[in-house]
């Protein structure tokens, strides 16, 4: 529906304007609807619509000096952009220097055969990182291999935000513990001395 697509682009433009007003350097967004696992028309058509909408948003981002980071979601939550290779093709098709990507380690654990290689492939287009273990819990509570991931971030000279996005199964009762342990694990792994 063209009117829904126009509303989505207008919303992104509003977010970009808000980010510029408060000094936020990056707006993170999804290139397609979350929880849609198949196209309503065709994948190619929806790719074209998404790229066209992102180009419109990118023009506003360029005017405002705010970057957009698209986030690939795993195949159980989205279908259009699910991994780093598809994100890089999407970025190429959008063609804006102000559109890059977010890497969410929870989703990458499902979709990337080698997360460190995905980080190297993204390189300077990686602008935002979400951190959780393989089960969405705090670091050290799943099977995510953090040292090579942290080494890859250091290798590419990553300077963007590293954001905890953890969901402990016991709710807020375990959240403080998971945050403390995750921050400690990140500090150790991202320390240049740990290499």
UniProtKB/TrEMBL annotation:
Keywords, alphabetical: Isomerase
The Xylose isomerase-like TIM barrel domain, residue ranges: 1-187
GO molecular function term, any single one: isomerase activity
PANTHER family xref list: 3-DEHYDRO-D-GULOSIDE 4-EPIMERASE-RELATED, ISOMERASE
The protein's name: Sugar phosphate isomerase/epimerase
Biological source species: Candidatus Segetimicrobium genomatis
């Amino acid at each position: 529906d063209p009117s829904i697509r126009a509303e989505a682009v207008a919303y992104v433009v509003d977010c970009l304007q808000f980010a510029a007003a408060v000094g936020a350097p990056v707006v993170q967004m999804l290139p397609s609807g979350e929880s849609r696992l198949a196209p309503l028309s065709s994948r190619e058509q929806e790719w074209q619509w998404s790229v066209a909408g992102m180009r419109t948003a990118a023009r506003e981002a360029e005017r405002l000096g705010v970057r957009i980071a698209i986030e690939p979601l795993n195949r159980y939550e989205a279908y259009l952009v699910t991994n780093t290779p598809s994100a890089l093709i999407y970025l190429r098709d959008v063609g804006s220097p102000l559109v890059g990507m977010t890497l969410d380690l929870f989703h990458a654990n499902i979709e990337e055969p080698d997360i460190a290689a995905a980080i190297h492939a993204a390189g300077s287009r990686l602008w935002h990182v979400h951190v959780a273990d393989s089960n969405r819990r705090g670091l050290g509570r799943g099977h995510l291999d953090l040292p090579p991931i942290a080494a890859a971030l250091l290798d590419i000279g990553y300077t963007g935000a590293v954001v905890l996005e953890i969901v402990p199964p016991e709710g807020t009762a375990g959240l403080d513990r998971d945050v403390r342990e995750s921050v400690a694990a990140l500090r150790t792994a991202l320390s240049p001395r740990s290499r």
